[in-house]
Amino acid sequence: MPFEVRGRFPLDAIVNVRLTTDEKDRLKEDATLAGVSVSELVRRRYFGRPIVAHTDIAMIRELRRLGGLLKHLYLSSNGDHAQETLATLHALKAAIEAISNDHQED
Predict the structure, then answer these.
(1) Within this chain, do residues 83 and 63 fall inside the same structural domain, yes or no?
(2) How do residues 4-29 score in pLDDT, each as one tens digit?
(3) Which domain holds residue 85?
(4) DSSP string, the chain
(5) In Å, how far from its chain's centre is CA 46?
(6) Residue 51's pLDDT band (boundaries 50, 70, 90)?
(7) Which of 9, 11, 53, 104 could form a disulfide with 33 if both were Cys (CB 3.0 to 4.6 A apart)?
């Protein structure tokens, strides 16, 4: 089986690392959450590339969906409860930014 090509160069080298069973299980779990292979997870961590968990992507998508529904509710109610709606939209925006910032710091 030929090695995968990333960018301009093929991934043509292998590094063997000894781990405890618990460490290996943690790597597999982290890779599964991020939706990547263990090899890709290790490469991203070592070379400082971002790792975004699928659960976080799904959460951001859901928060944006809720914001859209809240906007629709606000518009269809002719602005009733404007202060509460605005406060909730600000909270949704802050939550999305917090999740996004967590990945930029990693």
Answers:
(1) yes
(2) 666 788 888 899 999 999 999 999 99
(3) 54-105
(4) -PPPEETTEE----------HHHHHHHHHHHHHHTS-HHHHHHHHHTT-----HHHHHHHHHHHHHHHHHHHHHHHTTTTTHHHHHHHHHHHHHHHHHHHHHHHH-
(5) 18
(6) confident
(7) 53
